[in-house]
Amino acid sequence: MPDSRFKIMTSAATSGPGDAGRTGSWRVERPVIDYSRCTPARTGRHACHLCWFYCPDVAVSKTIEPQFDLDYCKGCGICAEECPVGAITMVAEETFAEGGADE
Amino acid sequence: MSNKCIDSGNNAAAHAARLAGVEVVAAYPITPQTPLTEKLSEWVASGEMDAEYVAVESEHSALGVCIGAASAGVRAFTATSANGLLYMSEQLHWAAGARLPLVMCVVNRGVGAPWSVWNDHQDAMSQRDTGWIQLFVKDHQEIVDVTIKAFRLAEAVHIPVMVNYDGYYLSHTYMPFELPDAEAVRAFLPPYVYKHALDPQRPENLNSVTLPDARRDAGGVLRGGYMDIRHNLQQEMHQALAVWEEIDADYRQRFGRGGAPVLEAYRLEDAEFVVVAMGTLANQFRDVVDRLRQEDGIRVGVLAVQVYRPFPARQLAEALQAARGVMVFEKGLSYGHQGALFADVKSALYPWPARPVLRNFIVGIGGREIPTNELCRNLKQACGQDELPPEVADTPNWIGLQL
Ligand code: SF4
Ligand code: SF4
């Protein structure tokens, strides 16, 4: 039983975007979804969502067309790695207009 | 109903882990710890112990599994020695920083190179700054009692605890000891509850990256930064000493053993000289001081340090205020400096008015024999040498070198 006199401080925190700061500024590659291949987008039904499940920064929405929150997407590529149908491609930031990254 | 037995120190530790209701054991065999984990795996295999035994490929993984188990709210145990402990080192820091209440037996052994399977304290000394509570025991009965109490301490203060006992001197020798009744241990040690236990219904980020400053999490709650978390670990390490004394008092009331959980004094009341030592060495010195008192009329006593981290600086300084000379005998050192325990004792005394003469002796490194005669001779000589040039007095003396 924990002793009530102790604070026992850890870095346990409510998970959500931004728990590690605005990690969008770390990104050198940006995930891009091809909705013609993405299962929920193709079928119009909630399915799969492994990109949402695996994203370590909670930067993918659990929507029929999954969206990325580029303030927090750090470009790690885990979503692209995990997508079972290969719908996500990592694209270099410099290919986007005006330097691409929003930070 | 209690149960008297005659068994090895490793089996005593295995009994203690079983009685503590450990639910996960993950360990990698290493001499001289091996028979302890073999015993636990036998009991798990035969169904005598209701626990998961996770066979791992390394000590790093062993502690990793225990960290995972504790994070899931499960009571976990591991044990190791020497290079195995050092292989865990990164995870030791992790377990402490994550404030996971693990208990680990460390069967003390010299660290390679050169290879040695024999006893000294260098393994534990080298990990003293990881944020683990480090306890040293002196006999089989203490292995049992201290290991059971260690679980209650770890879970009360949420700091992992290392129970150190001497390889071979204790691990492989047979001694009589008493096992407490299982039901009574369950009453003493309630089930482990972890407020951040992994739960898919209540997702949390555990030990994710902290930034230099405190931050608000996604729920808007202010969370400490790395420095705040580490500051609290330091504060609560010190507060843990008082909790350890309370736990010991409760154990003593229930089981009739205990009473000196932090420092154990032997013939200190009128002592002019005090030997400070840890582990079985402190027990060996009881013979030495008895002999010096009887044969030479030297008033000398022994102070066994049983909690090494957090270092009981105040209690130690108080116990040594009346001494004219303090001799620290130890089985490990901070290479390039001096005995680690000696340096700690010296710094504990500095703020106090009485500053006894201090001497440092290094013994038994890599299992080198520690003859009681030699201890007598060296201690007697040290008791007659108040006036040494500071540098000489501050240099460790190695006993039993064969150069
Ligand atoms: S993992 Fe791939 S298929 Fe599944 S939702 Fe994400 S993008 Fe679509
Ligand atoms: S690349 Fe994908 S997984 Fe990585 S942070 Fe961005 S959205 Fe999340």
UniProtKB/TrEMBL annotation, chain A:
An annotated Gene Ontology molecular function: oxidoreductase activity, acting on the aldehyde or oxo group of donors, iron-sulfur protein as acceptor
A Pfam family matched in the record: Fer4
InterPro entries according to UniProt: 4Fe4S_Fe-S-bd, 4Fe4S_Fe_S_CS, PorD_KorD
SUPFAM superfamilies with a match to the protein in the record: 4Fe-4S ferredoxins
Gene3D superfamilies, per the entry: 3.30.70.20
Isomerase as UniProt keyword: no
Keyword terms, alphabetized: 4Fe-4S, Iron, Iron-sulfur, Metal-binding, Pyruvate, Repeat
The organism's place on the tree of life at top rank: Bacteria
Organism in which the protein naturally occurs: Geothermobacter ehrlichii
Record protein name field: Pyruvate ferredoxin oxidoreductase delta subunit
Domain (4Fe-4S ferredoxin-type) ranges: 64-93
Cofactor(s) required, per the database record: [4Fe-4S] cluster
UniProtKB/TrEMBL annotation, chain B:
GO BP term, pick one: response to oxidative stress
Protein name as catalogued: Ketoisovalerate ferredoxin oxidoreductase alpha subunit
Domain Pyruvate:ferredoxin oxidoreductase core: 271-373
Domain of life of the source: Bacteria
GO molecular function, one term: oxidoreductase activity
S-adenosyl-L-methionine among keywords: no
Pfam families, per the entry: PFOR_II, POR_N
Domain Pyruvate flavodoxin/ferredoxin oxidoreductase pyrimidine binding: 15-213
